[in-house]
Structures are given as structure tokens and as C-alpha cells.
Amino acid sequence: MPSKLEDELFPSTPGKFKIERAHTMNRQFHRCFSSTSTMFVWALLLIALTASYLSLQSFLDTGSRYFSASWGGIQWEKQVRNSAQTHRNGGMSVLVTGAAGFVGTHVSLALKKRGDGVVGLDNFNDYYDQSLKKARKSLLNEHGIFIVEGDINDAKLLDKLFDVVVFTHVMHLAAQAGVRYAMENPQSYVHSNIAGLVTLLEACKSANPQPSIVWASSSSVYGLNDKVPFSESDRTDRPASLYAATKKAGEEITHTYNHIYGLSITGLRFFTVYGPWGRPDMAYFSFTRNILQGKPITVYRGKNRVDLARDFTYIDDIVKGCLGSLDTSGKSTGSGGKKRGPAPFRIFNLGNTSPVTVPTLVSILERHLQKKAKRNFVDMPGNGDVPFTHANTSLARKAFGYKPTTDLQTGLKKFVKWYLSYYGYNHVIHEGQFRHLKSGSVAVLD
């Protein structure tokens, strides 16, 4: 008879079965629990690794964007602040858009020379030879003016600039220029002259304090107007080109931002600006190059063989008008995008007030270059050019003493002297300098 101990150690078959079944279920339970725990731990580990990877990737991406960006960083901010620092009592701190452009370069230099702070912004597009823009940039750098390379459509860049510097004024000169190119690439005009303007105005109206704005409109807004001289009160609702239409749209848009947000805004209608460091696509510029190279120039004529005429305005006179407009612009009245009262809204003509025909322009260049031009007279195509421009500048004279002093003879002499010193006598146009135009149709008047 089995002992009690044996009975305890070795239970009867039924009891043994129950115990083994219970042990089996227990082992399965522990195995299952152990497996679930392991999976849970591995899941947590996987989640942790994934989170770490994503964090690392985000850090690397941020760092990559930081190091690859053309703006931002401690050193960049230091350069911006130093450039914006004023050096005269009551000096302005001015953001100049299109600073590497023709007018932008001259205005920036004039502001810096009198002790104002200047920060430039330019996207260095390839509408014409970029090397000329880079040379202007070098000139500005030599005078302590920092140029930020970026687009006015970059809202984050604009916000950053206004965060780094409290600009008192904005001189908005960035735009897609040229009348005829609009027939080939209309989107570039909408992108720069309308969308870019709105992006800039959004940044200005949200700034606290708001800056005063002076911007470049154009004499082209007078379009098919045949009343002379052109006055600011004349009709401007019949543009002859898309370029003119975008500038007219800009005048309406700026009026809206003035009315709603209290931005002080002055629009300047430039009349055919010329001079040293000018735009290579302009007629006087390409005429000079072709005359020196012995190549023919194309001189357009209007209906009934009437010579085209322009109110050619020397760059120094334009600069005086720009600075006068900044000095008398008045203050914006908004704060944080909310208007507190009416702010100045002005539009001025800046011209020479003495139109000159294109054949006369060519004759003056011939005298300065001491070389005859080979002229081809062609009827003006329907490309947006207008037959004449003539500025009435009485409003600008009354507002800030604007008075042009440089006639075309004197201005072209200065231009030719610069041209020969910069390019020499045998400047050859290279492929890519005018990617959008053929050599026979380079010259534009506005």
C-alpha cells in the first residue's frame, strides 16, 4: 500500500491528469505572457527607435536647410544690422528691393553716402547679363551696403528682415522690366510686379512699426493717352502693354493697402531712365554697343513715319526724386496690421520734361563715340511701345523741390565715358546675355 508520502508525491491518475493539465495551461499562459511582454518591449523599442530616427532626420533636414540657405544665421543677421545702421542724426533705415538693379544701385549709394542705413534685396534674375548685376553688387559692398540674395515673393525672408531690423522706409524698385518681353513671358510680370508687390505690402502692413513705402511705377501707365505733357491726373486706364498694366495694377493695389492698413505710400512714374550702370536692354545702351562694333541699329518710327520721342531722364535726377520722396513720405498710421488713421498716398511723375526723338539720341551718341551709326528705319510693331512720352513734374517740384538738371547731351556723355571704362571699345554680346531676345531686337525704349 503506497505511503502517504507517495500519495502526496505521486497522486492518483485522475489527480495526476488534472495537475498536468493545470501545469500545461499554466506553462502556456506563462509562455503567452512572456511572448506578449517580449512583443510589447520590442514594440516600445521600435517606437523609440522610430522617434529617434525621425528626430534625427528632422534635425539633419533643418541643419541642411540652414546651411544651404542663402540667408539666415548669426553672421548674416550681423551683416544685415551693420548695413542698416544709420550714421546721421534723424537718419533712415531703408530696405531697397531690386538693389542690384540700375536705379536700385544708384539710390542705395546715395542713401549710404548721406548717412542712411541701407539693406539691399535682389534675386539676380537672368533677364539680362547677371555679371553686370554682380558688378553692381560688388560696388555696393565696397560702400558697406549688404545685399541679401532673395525674392520679394519669399514671405519668410521678408518677415525675417523686418524682425532683424526696424526699417523706417522701404524703397521698392524690384520689378520685371521691359515692355516687349511681356509678350514672351507674361507670367514673370505677374509674379514680380503684382504678386511680389502684394507679398511686400503684406510684410510692411504687419510690421510694427510700419515703414513708409516709396515704389517705382512707370510712365508706361499713361498708355494710349495723347494729351501732353502727361500729368498725374490724366487717364491711366488704357495701357498699351502688359508691363504697363501690371504697373497700373500696382497703383491700385497700393491704394488699397493705404486705405485699409494705413501704409504711407508714394508711387513714382519714371520716364525712360538712362545713365552709367544702366540696363543693357535699353535702346541707348545697345545703340552704343552696335555703333562701336560697326553693326546696324534698328530705329523705329511711328505712324506716318513720325519719329518716336522719349522724355529721357538722367539717373542722377531720378535719384534726387527718389530721395526727395523718401524724405517727405510721412509716417504710416497702422500698427500690427490695423489702421489708426489716414496716411499719405501720393503719385509723382519723375521725368526730364524735355522729350527728344530717337534719331536725335543716335546723333548725340555718334558725336560722343566719334563714329557713324548704320541706321535701319523700321515701322514700330504692335509690341506695346508708345510713340512718345512727356512728363509734367509740377507736383513733384511742389512737394519736394524736384528739378531735373541734366540734359541728354550731358547725360549721354557721362554714360559713354562709363561704358568705355567698363566694357572697352569692343564689347561683344555673348550668348546668354539676352536669353530672351535676338540681337536684332534687343533695344527697348522703356
What form results from the Cα inertia axes? globular
Assembly category? single chain
Number of helices: 13
Please give the order of strands in the largest beta sheet. 3-2-1-4-5-6-13
List how many beta strands DSSP finds: 15
Report the helical percentage.
40-55%
Radius of gyration, in Å, reads: 34 Å
Low-confidence stretches: 1-25, 50-68, 434-442
User: Overall mean pLDDT score?
Assistant: 85
Secondary structural class: alpha/beta
Strand content: 5-15%
What string gives the helices and strands in order?
HHHEHEHEHEHEHEEHEEEHEEEEHEHH
Q: What's the main sheet like?
A: 7 strands, parallel
InterPro entries: Epimerase_deHydtase, NAD(P)-bd_dom_sf
GO molecular function, one term: UDP-glucuronate 4-epimerase activity
Family: Belongs to the NAD(P)-dependent epimerase/dehydratase family.
Catalytic activity: UDP-alpha-D-glucuronate = UDP-alpha-D-galacturonate
Please give a structural write-up.
This protein is an alpha/beta fold and 446 residues long. Helix content is 46%, strand content 13%. The chain is built from 13 helices and 15 strands. It has helices at residues 4-9, 13-68, 74-84, 102-113, 130-142, 155-164, 186-206, 242-261, 283-293, 315-327, 358-369, 394-400, 408-422; strands at 93-97, 117-122, 146-149, 169-172, 212-216, 265-270, 273-274, 296-301, 309-310, 313-314, 334-335, 338-339, 345-350, 356-357, 374-379. A hairpin with a 2-residue loop joins strand 11 (334-335) and strand 12 (338-339). Residues 1-25, 50-68 and 434-442 have low confidence and may be disordered. Residues 94-328 form the NAD-dependent epimerase/dehydratase domain. InterPro entries: Epimerase_deHydtase (IPR001509), NAD(P)-bd_dom_sf (IPR036291).
